[in-house]
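Hi,

Apologies if this is the wrong queue. I'm a grad student, and the batch job for signal-recognition-particle GTPase from Galdieria partita produced an output file that my downstream script rejects. I'm not sure whether the problem is my script or the file. Here is the sequence I used:
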Amino acid sequence: YMLFDEFANKIQQAISNVSKLQVFNDKEFQKALKNVRDSLIEADANVEIVDELISNVETKMKQVKIPKGVTKTQMFVKLVQDGLTEILGGEGTSDRILSAPQRQKRIMFVGLQGSGKTTTIAKFAKLTLKKFPKARILLVACDTRRPAAIEQLNILGKRVNCETFSGEEGSNAEWVLDRALKYSLEKEFDYILIDTAGRQVIDNDLMNELVLLEKNAKPDEILLVLDAMTGQEAANVARQFATTVRISGAVLTKLDSDTRGGAALSLNSISGCSICFMGTSENLDGLETFYPDRIASRILG
Ligand code: GDP
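Support response: The file is valid. Your script probably expects a header line. Output copied below for reference.
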Protein backbone atom coordinates (compact mmCIF):
# COMPACT_ATOMS: atom_id res chain seq x y z
CA TYR A 1 0.00 0.00 0.00
CA MET A 2 1.07 3.57 -0.48
CA LEU A 3 0.52 5.76 2.53
CA PHE A 4 -2.23 8.33 1.87
CA ASP A 5 -1.79 7.84 -1.86
CA GLU A 6 -4.29 10.43 -3.00
CA PHE A 7 -2.74 13.12 -0.84
CA ALA A 8 0.82 11.94 -1.49
CA ASN A 9 0.33 12.11 -5.26
CA LYS A 10 -0.96 15.67 -5.09
CA ILE A 11 1.70 17.05 -2.81
CA GLN A 12 4.46 15.19 -4.67
CA GLN A 13 3.21 16.76 -7.86
CA ALA A 14 3.40 20.20 -6.28
CA ILE A 15 6.93 19.51 -5.06
CA SER A 16 8.14 18.07 -8.34
CA ASN A 17 6.85 21.10 -10.26
CA VAL A 18 8.96 23.30 -7.99
CA SER A 19 12.02 21.09 -8.30
CA LYS A 20 11.96 21.39 -12.09
CA LEU A 21 12.02 25.19 -12.05
CA GLN A 22 15.06 27.06 -13.33
CA VAL A 23 14.13 30.23 -11.49
CA PHE A 24 12.15 30.26 -8.29
CA ASN A 25 10.84 33.79 -8.26
CA ASP A 26 8.12 35.20 -6.07
CA LYS A 27 5.37 34.35 -8.52
CA GLU A 28 6.47 30.71 -8.67
CA PHE A 29 6.87 30.66 -4.91
CA GLN A 30 3.29 31.84 -4.36
CA LYS A 31 2.05 29.29 -6.87
CA ALA A 32 3.93 26.50 -5.13
CA LEU A 33 2.56 27.55 -1.75
CA LYS A 34 -0.94 27.50 -3.15
CA ASN A 35 -0.49 24.02 -4.61
CA VAL A 36 0.82 22.64 -1.33
CA ARG A 37 -2.06 24.31 0.50
CA ASP A 38 -4.64 22.87 -1.93
CA SER A 39 -3.25 19.35 -1.55
CA LEU A 40 -3.53 19.57 2.24
CA ILE A 41 -7.05 20.98 2.16
CA GLU A 42 -8.18 18.30 -0.27
CA ALA A 43 -6.68 15.73 2.07
CA ASP A 44 -9.19 16.94 4.67
CA ALA A 45 -6.59 18.51 6.93
CA ASN A 46 -7.83 21.13 9.36
CA VAL A 47 -7.86 24.51 7.57
CA GLU A 48 -6.43 26.58 10.40
CA ILE A 49 -3.46 24.32 10.84
CA VAL A 50 -2.84 24.25 7.10
CA ASP A 51 -2.80 28.06 6.96
CA GLU A 52 -0.40 28.16 9.84
CA LEU A 53 1.91 25.73 8.04
CA ILE A 54 1.76 27.74 4.83
CA SER A 55 2.43 31.03 6.55
CA ASN A 56 5.35 29.46 8.45
CA VAL A 57 6.91 28.24 5.23
CA GLU A 58 6.41 31.66 3.68
CA THR A 59 8.05 33.55 6.56
CA LYS A 60 10.90 31.12 7.00
CA MET A 61 11.65 31.09 3.31
CA LYS A 62 12.13 34.84 3.45
CA GLN A 63 14.19 34.84 6.64
CA VAL A 64 16.32 31.78 6.29
CA LYS A 65 19.90 32.02 5.13
CA ILE A 66 20.18 29.33 2.51
CA PRO A 67 23.42 27.37 2.96
CA LYS A 68 25.93 27.05 0.14
CA GLY A 69 25.20 24.16 -2.17
CA VAL A 70 21.48 24.22 -1.37
CA THR A 71 19.10 25.65 -3.93
CA LYS A 72 16.08 27.77 -3.14
CA THR A 73 13.76 25.04 -4.31
CA GLN A 74 15.49 22.46 -2.11
CA MET A 75 15.06 24.81 0.83
CA PHE A 76 11.38 25.13 0.01
CA VAL A 77 10.93 21.36 -0.05
CA LYS A 78 12.71 21.04 3.27
CA LEU A 79 10.48 23.66 4.89
CA VAL A 80 7.36 21.88 3.60
CA GLN A 81 8.70 18.62 4.98
CA ASP A 82 9.39 20.19 8.39
CA GLY A 83 5.89 21.66 8.43
CA LEU A 84 4.34 18.33 7.56
CA THR A 85 6.34 16.63 10.30
CA GLU A 86 5.09 19.21 12.75
CA ILE A 87 1.41 18.74 11.96
CA LEU A 88 1.82 14.96 12.02
CA GLY A 89 2.78 15.32 15.67
CA GLY A 90 6.40 16.48 15.83
CA GLU A 91 8.37 14.02 17.88
CA GLY A 92 7.39 10.36 17.83
CA THR A 93 6.50 8.61 21.09
CA SER A 94 6.39 4.95 20.10
CA ASP A 95 9.86 4.22 21.49
CA ARG A 96 8.70 5.11 24.96
CA ILE A 97 5.56 3.04 24.65
CA LEU A 98 7.27 0.00 23.20
CA SER A 99 10.06 0.05 25.76
CA ALA A 100 11.76 -2.96 27.26
CA PRO A 101 9.74 -4.73 29.93
CA GLN A 102 11.26 -3.74 33.27
CA ARG A 103 8.29 -4.14 35.51
CA GLN A 104 4.57 -4.50 35.24
CA LYS A 105 3.70 -2.12 32.49
CA ARG A 106 0.02 -1.35 32.20
CA ILE A 107 -1.38 -0.12 28.95
CA MET A 108 -5.06 0.68 28.65
CA PHE A 109 -6.68 0.76 25.22
CA VAL A 110 -9.70 2.97 24.67
CA GLY A 111 -11.79 3.84 21.63
CA LEU A 112 -15.14 3.59 19.95
CA GLN A 113 -16.62 0.28 18.87
CA GLY A 114 -15.42 -0.72 15.43
CA SER A 115 -12.32 1.47 15.60
CA GLY A 116 -10.14 -1.64 15.67
CA LYS A 117 -9.35 -1.65 19.39
CA THR A 118 -9.40 -5.39 19.99
CA THR A 119 -7.42 -6.14 16.86
CA THR A 120 -4.90 -3.46 17.84
CA ILE A 121 -4.35 -5.04 21.26
CA ALA A 122 -3.48 -8.37 19.64
CA LYS A 123 -1.26 -6.62 17.10
CA PHE A 124 0.45 -4.69 19.86
CA ALA A 125 1.11 -7.90 21.78
CA LYS A 126 2.57 -9.47 18.66
CA LEU A 127 4.79 -6.46 17.94
CA THR A 128 6.02 -6.45 21.54
CA LEU A 129 6.86 -10.15 21.36
CA LYS A 130 8.73 -9.60 18.13
CA LYS A 131 10.89 -7.00 19.84
CA PHE A 132 11.09 -8.71 23.23
CA PRO A 133 10.51 -12.43 22.66
CA LYS A 134 10.62 -13.23 26.37
CA ALA A 135 8.04 -10.65 27.40
CA ARG A 136 5.12 -12.06 29.32
CA ILE A 137 1.93 -10.40 28.24
CA LEU A 138 -1.52 -10.63 29.78
CA LEU A 139 -4.58 -9.41 27.90
CA VAL A 140 -7.42 -8.24 30.13
CA ALA A 141 -11.00 -8.22 28.88
CA CYS A 142 -12.65 -5.24 30.55
CA ASP A 143 -15.18 -4.70 27.77
CA THR A 144 -17.50 -6.79 29.91
CA ARG A 145 -20.82 -5.72 28.51
CA ARG A 146 -20.41 -7.37 25.17
CA PRO A 147 -19.81 -11.12 25.41
CA ALA A 148 -18.68 -11.01 21.78
CA ALA A 149 -15.88 -8.61 22.69
CA ILE A 150 -14.59 -10.94 25.41
CA GLU A 151 -14.76 -13.87 23.05
CA GLN A 152 -12.92 -11.95 20.34
CA LEU A 153 -10.10 -10.99 22.70
CA ASN A 154 -9.82 -14.64 23.74
CA ILE A 155 -9.54 -15.78 20.16
CA LEU A 156 -7.04 -13.11 19.16
CA GLY A 157 -5.05 -13.76 22.33
CA LYS A 158 -4.63 -17.40 21.35
CA ARG A 159 -3.49 -16.40 17.89
CA VAL A 160 -0.68 -14.30 19.33
CA ASN A 161 0.12 -16.81 22.11
CA CYS A 162 -0.92 -14.59 24.98
CA GLU A 163 -3.05 -15.45 27.94
CA THR A 164 -6.34 -13.59 28.29
CA PHE A 165 -7.94 -12.78 31.62
CA SER A 166 -11.71 -12.41 31.63
CA GLY A 167 -14.35 -12.60 34.31
CA GLU A 168 -17.36 -14.83 34.48
CA GLU A 169 -20.43 -13.75 32.65
CA GLY A 170 -22.08 -10.75 34.28
CA SER A 171 -19.01 -9.56 36.16
CA ASN A 172 -18.28 -5.87 35.85
CA ALA A 173 -15.19 -4.22 34.45
CA GLU A 174 -13.81 -3.01 37.77
CA TRP A 175 -14.03 -6.45 39.26
CA VAL A 176 -12.28 -8.04 36.28
CA LEU A 177 -9.55 -5.42 36.38
CA ASP A 178 -8.99 -5.89 40.09
CA ARG A 179 -8.65 -9.66 39.73
CA ALA A 180 -6.51 -9.37 36.65
CA LEU A 181 -4.04 -7.02 38.35
CA LYS A 182 -3.71 -9.39 41.32
CA TYR A 183 -3.27 -12.32 38.99
CA SER A 184 -0.64 -10.52 36.94
CA LEU A 185 1.38 -9.71 40.05
CA GLU A 186 1.22 -13.31 41.17
CA LYS A 187 2.31 -14.60 37.78
CA GLU A 188 4.79 -11.80 37.14
CA PHE A 189 3.55 -10.57 33.81
CA ASP A 190 5.60 -7.80 32.21
CA TYR A 191 2.86 -6.21 30.17
CA ILE A 192 -0.80 -5.91 31.05
CA LEU A 193 -2.87 -4.84 28.06
CA ILE A 194 -6.33 -3.75 29.12
CA ASP A 195 -9.25 -3.77 26.70
CA THR A 196 -12.03 -1.41 27.72
CA ALA A 197 -15.66 -0.84 26.84
CA GLY A 198 -16.31 0.30 23.30
CA ARG A 199 -19.48 2.10 22.30
CA GLN A 200 -21.00 3.31 19.10
CA VAL A 201 -20.90 6.87 20.34
CA ILE A 202 -19.33 8.77 23.20
CA ASP A 203 -21.71 8.98 26.14
CA ASN A 204 -21.42 9.70 29.86
CA ASP A 205 -21.75 6.06 30.73
CA LEU A 206 -18.71 5.16 28.67
CA MET A 207 -16.64 8.05 29.96
CA ASN A 208 -17.52 7.34 33.60
CA GLU A 209 -16.44 3.75 33.20
CA LEU A 210 -13.15 4.78 31.61
CA VAL A 211 -12.44 7.29 34.37
CA LEU A 212 -13.02 4.59 36.97
CA LEU A 213 -10.81 2.09 35.14
CA GLU A 214 -8.07 4.67 34.78
CA LYS A 215 -8.22 5.39 38.50
CA ASN A 216 -8.05 1.73 39.41
CA ALA A 217 -5.58 0.55 36.80
CA LYS A 218 -3.16 3.48 37.16
CA PRO A 219 -1.97 2.75 33.64
CA ASP A 220 1.47 3.79 32.41
CA GLU A 221 -0.05 4.56 29.05
CA ILE A 222 -3.54 5.04 27.67
CA LEU A 223 -3.68 4.45 23.94
CA LEU A 224 -6.62 5.81 22.01
CA VAL A 225 -7.57 3.72 18.98
CA LEU A 226 -9.04 5.73 16.09
CA ASP A 227 -10.39 4.74 12.70
CA ALA A 228 -8.52 6.77 10.08
CA MET A 229 -11.32 6.27 7.60
CA THR A 230 -13.48 8.66 9.60
CA GLY A 231 -11.15 11.53 8.64
CA GLN A 232 -11.31 14.73 10.68
CA GLU A 233 -14.09 13.20 12.77
CA ALA A 234 -11.42 10.98 14.35
CA ALA A 235 -9.76 14.14 15.62
CA ASN A 236 -13.02 15.30 17.19
CA VAL A 237 -13.49 11.94 18.87
CA ALA A 238 -9.94 12.21 20.18
CA ARG A 239 -10.57 15.65 21.60
CA GLN A 240 -13.51 14.32 23.59
CA PHE A 241 -11.59 11.33 24.94
CA ALA A 242 -8.65 13.55 25.82
CA THR A 243 -10.77 15.77 28.02
CA THR A 244 -11.82 12.74 30.06
CA VAL A 245 -8.81 10.46 30.40
CA ARG A 246 -5.08 11.04 30.07
CA ILE A 247 -4.42 9.89 26.52
CA SER A 248 -0.72 9.25 26.00
CA GLY A 249 -0.86 8.38 22.33
CA ALA A 250 -3.12 7.48 19.46
CA VAL A 251 -3.19 4.43 17.24
CA LEU A 252 -4.58 5.26 13.84
CA THR A 253 -6.06 2.14 12.27
CA LYS A 254 -7.05 1.23 8.71
CA LEU A 255 -4.45 3.47 7.09
CA ASP A 256 -4.35 0.87 4.32
CA SER A 257 -7.80 2.13 3.30
CA ASP A 258 -7.31 5.83 3.98
CA THR A 259 -6.18 7.63 0.85
CA ARG A 260 -6.50 11.19 2.11
CA GLY A 261 -4.87 11.31 5.51
CA GLY A 262 -7.31 13.78 7.06
CA ALA A 263 -7.27 12.14 10.48
CA ALA A 264 -3.49 12.00 10.65
CA LEU A 265 -3.14 15.57 9.45
CA SER A 266 -5.69 17.04 11.88
CA LEU A 267 -5.35 14.91 14.98
CA ASN A 268 -2.54 16.66 16.77
CA SER A 269 -3.77 20.20 16.29
CA ILE A 270 -7.38 19.44 17.18
CA SER A 271 -6.91 17.07 20.10
CA GLY A 272 -3.34 17.43 21.29
CA CYS A 273 -2.92 13.67 20.87
CA SER A 274 0.01 12.40 18.86
CA ILE A 275 0.03 9.26 16.78
CA CYS A 276 2.39 6.56 18.00
CA PHE A 277 1.30 3.53 15.95
CA MET A 278 -0.57 2.88 12.76
CA GLY A 279 -2.70 -0.04 11.65
CA THR A 280 -1.84 -0.98 8.10
CA SER A 281 -3.70 -4.21 7.46
CA GLU A 282 -6.34 -6.51 8.82
CA ASN A 283 -3.86 -9.20 9.74
CA LEU A 284 -2.05 -9.28 13.04
CA ASP A 285 1.29 -8.16 11.62
CA GLY A 286 -0.27 -4.93 10.49
CA LEU A 287 0.85 -2.55 13.20
CA GLU A 288 3.78 -0.18 12.65
CA THR A 289 5.46 2.53 14.66
CA PHE A 290 4.64 6.04 13.58
CA TYR A 291 7.46 8.58 13.44
CA PRO A 292 6.17 11.90 12.05
CA ASP A 293 9.48 12.77 10.34
CA ARG A 294 9.73 9.43 8.57
CA ILE A 295 6.07 9.55 7.60
CA ALA A 296 6.50 13.06 6.21
CA SER A 297 9.41 12.00 4.05
CA ARG A 298 7.52 8.90 2.92
CA ILE A 299 4.59 11.06 1.85
CA LEU A 300 6.85 13.47 -0.01
CA GLY A 301 8.51 10.51 -1.73
P1 GDP B 1 -13.28 -2.88 18.03
O1 GDP B 1 -14.78 -2.94 18.02
O2 GDP B 1 -12.80 -1.48 18.21
O3 GDP B 1 -12.65 -3.82 18.99
O4 GDP B 1 -12.80 -3.25 16.54
P2 GDP B 1 -12.21 -4.60 15.97
O5 GDP B 1 -10.86 -4.85 16.50
O6 GDP B 1 -13.21 -5.67 16.08
O7 GDP B 1 -12.03 -4.17 14.43
C1 GDP B 1 -13.12 -3.79 13.60
C2 GDP B 1 -12.81 -4.21 12.17
O8 GDP B 1 -11.75 -3.41 11.65
C3 GDP B 1 -12.38 -5.64 12.02
O9 GDP B 1 -12.97 -6.19 10.87
C4 GDP B 1 -10.85 -5.55 11.85
O10 GDP B 1 -10.32 -6.61 11.10
C5 GDP B 1 -10.73 -4.24 11.11
N1 GDP B 1 -9.42 -3.59 11.30
C6 GDP B 1 -8.83 -3.23 12.46
N2 GDP B 1 -7.64 -2.62 12.23
C7 GDP B 1 -7.48 -2.58 10.88
C8 GDP B 1 -6.46 -2.05 10.00
O11 GDP B 1 -5.45 -1.46 10.41
N3 GDP B 1 -6.67 -2.22 8.66
C9 GDP B 1 -7.78 -2.82 8.17
N4 GDP B 1 -7.89 -2.93 6.85
N5 GDP B 1 -8.75 -3.31 8.95
C10 GDP B 1 -8.61 -3.19 10.30
